[in-house]
Amino acid sequence: VIFFSVLILLFLLWDVKKPPKFPPGPKWYPIVGCALQISELRLKCGMFCKVVDELAKYYINPYGLYGLKIGRDKVVIAYYCDTINEMMTNEDLDGKPDGIFYRMRTFNSKKGILVTDEDLWVDQRRFILRHLKDFGFSRAGMVNIIQHEASFLLEELREIVSEQGGKQAEVSMHDLLKVNVLNTLWSMMASKRYNRKSAEITDLLTMLFELFQNVDMVGALFSHFPFIRFIAPNYSGYNAFIENHQRIYTFLRKEVENHRKTYANFDMPRDLMDSYLRELDNPKRGEF
User: Are 67 and 75 in contact (CB under 8 A)?
Assistant: First the structure.
């Protein structure tokens, strides 16, 4: 009993000890870190980005950094623009976090581009940028895509003003641009645009909203305390996370299947999806 008591005490002391040169931040408590303070501030502020601003008032160091510990995860927040720029361009900081939260987003493994690193990330990033540029990304062609979508936005605004009967019409900015922004990106991804009133785009935006509502940039409760998904799957956000991603997977599988059925010219891909399908069908392809 004494041995295990000492062992537990040492573990608790080790759990609240900050690594050397770790940036300043809220006090750490055993097991939970500063998760309780973060949760309290999030309820008060509403969004995690506002929590970041609030904590920066008290803990940021001269280099524009402060640190958190949420459950078992240590997080360093880069706050100043110069600090963020250095973080984004420093190859020593290219590594991505790992764990159940990140792997479950991509079929229980590290795939894609957002949560991968090392050679896989380099290959995926190079492939995506090369092919997106063929469809206008970061080039003059993208101006035409944006202008084309802006013409639809202008027409929709005219309809709203006309429906309200005059020049004094009020236009809500809350949801005004999200469909047009999505269409601008989706035209390069899947050579397709959605009508603002279509059921398909409504379902997609609802899925994305629910996803961002249940998780934020530091994950969800079950990602910091993985065991809690077995005890409280609803409260920890685990069930909502799984259900939301299953709906997104269904939507994407449908789009991929439509591309497979309509892909006619192997040498002339219409969009990024076609480019990936062509690469996957290439017997000489590398590992993706």
Answer: yes
State how far the Cα of 276 lies from the Cα of 271, in Å rounded to an integer. Answer: 9
d(CA 271, CA 136): 10
Span 244-266, pLDDT tens digits:
888 888 888 998 998 888 887 77
- Cβ neighbours for 225, distance < 8 A, ≥ 6 positions apart: 71, 72, 236
Cα separation of 85 and 82, whole Å? 5
Q: How far is Cα 77 from Cα 56, in angstroms, rounded to an integer?
A: 9
CA 151 to chain centre: 29
Quickly tell me which residue has 């429906």 as its tokens: 163
| Residue 134: how many other CB atoms lie within 10 Å | 14
Q: What are phi and psi of 166, to 5 degrees?
A: 150, -175
Whole-model pTM above 0.85? Answer: no
